Amino acid sequence: MWWCRDIPAYFFSRKGCKVFTQRALFSYPFRSFLYVRKKGFYIKASYPNPYLHSCVCYFGTAFANGTIMNFVSTLLFLLFSASAAIGQTRPPAASLDTLPRIALPTVPNKAFKAGEYMRFRLSYGLIDAGEAEITVKNGSKRFQGREAYHIVGTGKTLGAFSWFFKVRDRYETYFDKKGAFPWEFVRDIEEGSYKKTQVYYFHQDKAAVTTNKGETFAIPKYSQDMLSAFFYARTLDFSKAKMDQVYTIPTFVDGEHFPLQVKYKGKEEIDSRAGKFRCLKFVPVVQKGRIFKEEEDMMVWITDDENKIPVLCKAKVLVGSIKMELVEYSNLLNPIARVP
User: Fold this and answer.
1) Residue 97, pLDDT above cutoff 60
2) Distances from the Cα of 103 to the Cα of 106, 217, 313, angstroms
3) Whether 30 contacts 53, CB under 8 Å
4) Which of 4, 105, 225, 261 shows the smallest number of beta carbons within 10 Å?
5) How many helices (DSSP H) and strands (DSSP E) are in the chain?
6) Residues whose CB is less than 8 angstroms from the CB of residue 145 and which lie 6 or more positions away in sequence, other chains included
7) Does 213 have pLDDT greater than 90?
8) What's the rounded Cα separation, in Å, for the pair 163 and 158?
9) Range 53-82 burial, b when 16+ CB lie within 10 A, else e
10) What does the alpha-carbon distance between residue 96 and residue 93 come to, in Å, rounded to a whole number?
11) Range among 28-37, 165-174, 220-229 rated most confident
């Protein structure tokens, strides 16, 4: 028997999923029991397949927090929702009329171009649970006369996971071609019966952001959103990175300033479904004790070339582990560091 605590529990049905406040999941050799608490009462649900149930229960938890696309954003997306940010703060309210203008940066980009495509498969144990795709296009919008990439990330559950907890997420960012920062971010998620839409309008010339709720906040200059942060990171030069060197990216997520941090951990050759590649290894700097027991319970490998695309991401969680692998890519800007 095992007992999992401190993660939200879900009561599953064919029509969707309900979230409860108290959580405790017990698994026995032939049956699983989910105890949940609602309005002071415990409800017991029994399932004949403990492995599948525990997988779906935890992965449902992850997806309910936007994991598919969040997993893809440090690389790519589990970090934002599954861990507490170090130094995460609510930014101060601001008025665009009183904020001073600042110069916009020029950031060289040798990592990607319009037409790039990547597809990833997410698995829990031996089960393929989700899929994520990222595409880069030339944007049809201009911002202050400047051209932008239109980057779209989508995530969905697969197979039995869709039957228990259907996820269809879409993330979009308009990413300035010269400055490597976002102008507009759209998050449209459908997770079980839960639906949410977020729109952020970045005023990069005033270090501010306005939400679709009409709120305006002062933020660190050139802040990223949860999708653009990944593309900005690809513009960084890691050729002279030292062991345990930390890179920080100011990010605006869910109405809060999030100083996203990743730590360099050396070079390795990695096998994935897309082949074998020479890679750089990173770990996110996270708060211990929530989803991750230790700081290095999540590891990310990106290609050791100018593209810097993610090849593999592994995360040990309180219940098992989650893995994301690159399965398909096309239209890269540079030759990829593939091992013959």
Assistant:
1) yes
2) 10, 19, 36
3) no
4) 105
5) 5, 20
6) none
7) yes
8) 8
9) bbbbbbbbbbbbbbbbbbbbbbbbbbbbbb
10) 10
11) 220-229
